[in-house]
Automatic annotation (TrEMBL):
GO CC, any one term: plasma membrane
Compartments reported by the entry: Cell inner membrane
EC code(s) of this entry: 2.7.7.65
Keyword tags: Membrane, Nucleotidyltransferase, Transferase, Transmembrane, Transmembrane helix
Name of this protein: diguanylate cyclase
Organism of this sequence: Denitrificimonas caeni
SUPFAM superfamilies: Nucleotide cyclase
Transmembrane annotation, as ranges: 52-71, 77-98, 110-134, 140-159, 166-185, 197-222
Names of the cofactor(s): Mg(2+)
Length: 384
């Protein structure tokens, strides 16, 4: 299996944006590998595009009713008109009442509603049309209703989706197409139905490629926007967002959240005595050493210069202090003159310090970091 993956990975990567790393290919398969910031950005984009889709359908759905009046008998077009009004109202409600929250669950719900509405309309209209004898003209117009699943399937291409999400959504439309065929079993033109079903599958494949390509571009752009180019960890701008998100999650789940504020001791002397390239190398080594001891849920941020933040969710003050002490004992690397690199660390925790806002935990950790420096550096301060 590993040989197959090593064989196909570089070939698959050749079809994707050049900025995408081989290690990021798994993110195109499942959302479980996505970072918190990527999930938030993607959720916002999905909901905004759902609302755009809903606006178009809310306007276009009743307009087509003019054609129904011209070609169908009164009992049929009245029923279809009522169905169209209800469908258009549902789309309008989705447009008006749904707003992006940054939650991927909300984005999934919005997409589900978006595709359920026209799917129900398709099945209901298909059943209505099957119950009436149609002339050649009205029959030709009724054929247009059969194109709705193809429009919806093609619409998936506007969303940045991973392969698993594409399969699930495409399956809903394929099941709806199969259900419509089942409801009209006795009068179904099987060769035509089979050809249409196969075409729907082909469109699903094309849209899957389009939407995963969008996701690949998004992964690349988000990574470039939120990471510090020197150390590869989160930058200050994205760090504020991460801290805010983690704070909200901790409040919502009533969990502890600890913030560690690192400041490398006497770092200016490295730049002054050995040059900025040597200073950059020290920063990279420090980050590499700290990352060896991080959990998957922890977030290391470069706050500026030689200052770093470590966001530790679901971690109380005692556990966080023990974790930082283990990092110190492991070492933060060496200075260019061969002496150990040390850091002054300030710790603050949401519950223990009785804080109400994420900016307070940042200010308190910063204050305690300065207390650690004033106390002689190369130490941890968790009070004061």
């Amino acid at each position: 299996m590993s040989r197959l993956l090593s064989f196909f990975s570089p070939r698959l990567a050749s079809f994707l944006p050049t900025g995408l790393k081989a290690t990021e290919l798994a993110q195109l398969l499942s959302p479980s590998q996505h970072s918190m910031l990527l999930s938030q950005q993607r959720a916002t984009m999905i909901v905004n595009r759902v609302r755009l889709f809903a606006m178009l359908f809310a306007v276009l759905t009743p307009i087509w009713g003019i054609v129904d009046v011209m070609v169908f008998s009164s009992p049929l077009w009245i029923k279809l008109a009522l169905l169209r009004v209800l469908t258009s109202a549902a789309f309008a409600a989705l447009l008006v009442f749904y707003r992006p929250t940054g939650s991927l669950l909300d984005a999934y719900r919005a997409m589900a509603i978006l595709f359920i509405i026209p799917t129900v309309f398709y099945i209901a209209s298909h059943s209505l049309l099957a119950g009436y004898a149609l002339s050649s003209l009205s029959s030709a117009v009724a054929t247009g209703y059969a194109f709705l699943p193809f429009v919806l399937m093609a619409g998936l291409a506007i969303f940045p989706l991973c392969l698993l999400e594409n399969i699930l959504l495409a399956s809903i439309l394929l099941i709806a197409q199969g259900l419509a065929g089942y409801l009209n079993w006795s009068t179904l033109n099987w060769p035509s139905f089979a050809g249409g079903f196969w075409l729907l599958i082909l469109i699903a494949g094309v849209t899957a490629l389009a939407s995963t390509s969008q996701l690949a571009f998004m992964i690349t752009l988000v990574r470039q926007a939120i990471h510090d180019p020197l150390t590869g960890i989160f930058s200050r701008s994205s760090g504020k967002e991460i801290l805010n998100l983690q704070w909200s999650a901790a409040q919502r789940n009533e969990q502890p959240l600890t913030l560690a504020f690192f400041d490398l001791d006497h770092f200016k002397q490295i730049n002054d005595n050995f040059g900025h390239e040597a200073g950059d190398k020290v920063l990279q080594i420090f980050v590499a050493q700290v990352q060896k001891k991080l959990r998957a849920s922890d977030s290391l941020l470069r706050w500026g210069g030689e200052e770093f933040l470590l966001v530790m969710p679901n971690t109380d003050l005692d556990k966080a202090e023990c974790a930082i002490e283990r990092m110190q004992s492991n070492g933060f690397g060496m200075r260019p003159d061969g002496t150990p690199l040390t850091a002054s660390v300030g710790l603050a925790e949401r519950n223990a310090d009785q804080l109400d806002y994420y900016k307070q935990i940042l200010a308190l950790a910063d204050k305690r970091m300065y207390l650690a420096k004033q106390a002689g550096r190369n130490r941890i301060c968790a009070e004061g």
